[in-house]
Design the sequence.
């Protein structure tokens, strides 16, 4: 079910993961049928098993963006619509302390 008017607009599908990509490709078909000019899918985890890559390649999706939380090298070679975001820097930034304590050594000022 689609709620709202997408005619002449860019639609963005957001999901935590895609395994077979059946849901996102069906949603993209509906959005394009209802007049969306572009359809992008943003996925945290692109499992992309079975026929998922073939399904994406032949779908109405204009671009699929996934993180590399799952290895994507083979998928990327087979799918020109696939864009992979590196999540290492996000984890590195998240592991930094949230505050720093300045230490004042007596006699150093």
Sequence:
């Amino acid at each position: 079910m689609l709620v709202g008017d997408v005619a002449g607009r860019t639609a963005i599908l957001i999901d935590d993961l895609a395994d077979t990509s059946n849901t996102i490709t069906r949603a993209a078909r509906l959005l394009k049928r209802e007049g969306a000019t572009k359809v992008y899918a943003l996925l945290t985890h692109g499992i992309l098993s079975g026929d998922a890559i073939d399904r994406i390649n032949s779908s109405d999706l204009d671009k699929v963006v996934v993180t590399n939380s799952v290895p994507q090298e083979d998928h990327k070679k087979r799918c020109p619509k696939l864009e992979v975001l590196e999540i290492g820097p996000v984890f590195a930034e998240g592991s930094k302390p949230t505050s720093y304590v300045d230490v004042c050594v007596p006699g150093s000022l």
Q: What stands out?
A: Residues 53 and 67 are 15 Å apart (CA to CA).
